[in-house]
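User: Just a sanity check before I run the rest of the batch. Below are the structure tokens for the first item. I only need the designed sequence back.
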């Protein structure tokens, strides 16, 4: 059988979305091979849940954060597992156990900052013994080799993808029922948590007074929630820009799609992005993007083509790029069109599915 083990699949976020994509591919790969597939999720609610990814349906069993129970279930299946797919480096020891018990092959999915530094010994050994480790960017691939000691031949580059049908040219079209402020709109979508302050929301807030001097009716939409939101709201208040900023909290997929459609520029000047799936989501709506000139972001945001890159916390440069885009409709249209072309060429779910299917066949 094919076994997939993930930390979480039902939640919101890039890691969860990529996990759902991988689980859907595992199911179709198993069916084509005439064998069963099992998908487990540590932190999803206990019980069985049905998930659909572009018509690919699969069932996931949640374990409600009960790690011993999950481990026992994996061990019970060990004699039957031909290939195990571990959706996070923290789960890699399960693959090592399976390999030691029954010579199972296993693949580890990696996620940027979680793999850039040397892991604790057991996890590091488990990643080294994996048949393959997946990296979304060549930057992360290099960091895996350097930090974990994994052979470069076993690190596979597989860029992430947007959901099937997501975006302007997809099948999901929603009515514009949401009411947005008039004037140009900037958008950031991210978790507002203390560990993820590196995303750069505070930098955009700091740039807003300069932007408002040039484009007075600009409004900044921030989608996401977390324990860092009060600090960010305080920054906006201290800068006197609360009337030009809306913290929208966590939104449904429909509401999020409306935000992407309504914005003029997507901005997330992060200093530690592995890949940035959210950049692809903005590109799916043909929006220009501004990202940080660091880590894996330059592999998605091509400076001067589909957007701009700025150094982390360089407020004058960020304000300059934002005002340039807000003043120039033709530039926004050209960059948005370039981003959409890149997305359709390199970051569709079909391309991701083909890449992962090929890897599973090799394993």
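Assistant: Here's the designed sequence for the first item:
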């Amino acid at each position: 059988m094919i076994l997939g083990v993930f930390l979480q699949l039902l939640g919101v976020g890039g890691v969860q979305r990529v996990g759902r994509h991988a689980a859907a591919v595992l199911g179709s790969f198993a069916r084509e091979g005439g064998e069963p597939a099992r998908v487990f999720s540590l932190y999803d609610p206990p019980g069985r849940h049905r998930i659909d990814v572009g018509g690919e349906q699969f069932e996931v069993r949640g374990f409600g954060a009960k790690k011993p129970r999950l481990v026992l279930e994996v061990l019970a299946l060990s004699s039957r597992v031909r290939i195990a797919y571990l959706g996070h480096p923290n789960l890699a020891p399960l693959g090592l156990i399976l390999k030691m018990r029954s010579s199972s092959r296993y693949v580890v999915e990696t996620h940027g900052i979680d793999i850039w530094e040397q892991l604790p010994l057991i996890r590091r050994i488990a990643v080294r013994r994996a048949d393959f480790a997946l990296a979304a960017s060549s930057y992360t691939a290099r960091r895996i080799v350097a930090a974990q000691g994994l052979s470069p031949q076993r690190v596979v580059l597989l860029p992430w993808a947007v959901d099937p049908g997501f975006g302007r040219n997809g099948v999901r079209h929603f009515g514009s029922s949401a009411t947005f402020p008039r004037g140009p709109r900037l958008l950031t979508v991210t978790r507002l948590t203390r560990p993820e302050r590196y995303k750069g929301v505070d930098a955009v807030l700091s740039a807003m007074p300069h932007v408002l001097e040039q484009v007075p009716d600009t409004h900044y939409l921030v989608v996401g929630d977390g324990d860092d939101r009060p600090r960010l709201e305080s920054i906006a208040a201290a800068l006197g820009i609360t009337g030009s900023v809306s913290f929208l909290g966590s939104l449904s997929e429909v509401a999020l799609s409306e935000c992407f459609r309504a914005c003029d520029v997507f901005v997330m000047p992060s200093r530690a992005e592995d890949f940035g799936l959210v950049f692809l989501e903005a590109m799916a709506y043909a929006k220009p993007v501004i990202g940080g000139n660091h880590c894996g972001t330059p592999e998605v945001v091509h400076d001067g083509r589909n957007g701009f890159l700025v150094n982390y916390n360089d407020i004058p440069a960020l304000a300059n790029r934002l005002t340039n885009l807000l003043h120039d409709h033709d530039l926004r249209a050209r960059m948005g069109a370039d981003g959409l072309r890149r997305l359709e060429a390199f970051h569709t779910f079909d391309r991701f599915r083909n890449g992962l299917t090929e890897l599973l066949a090799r394993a």
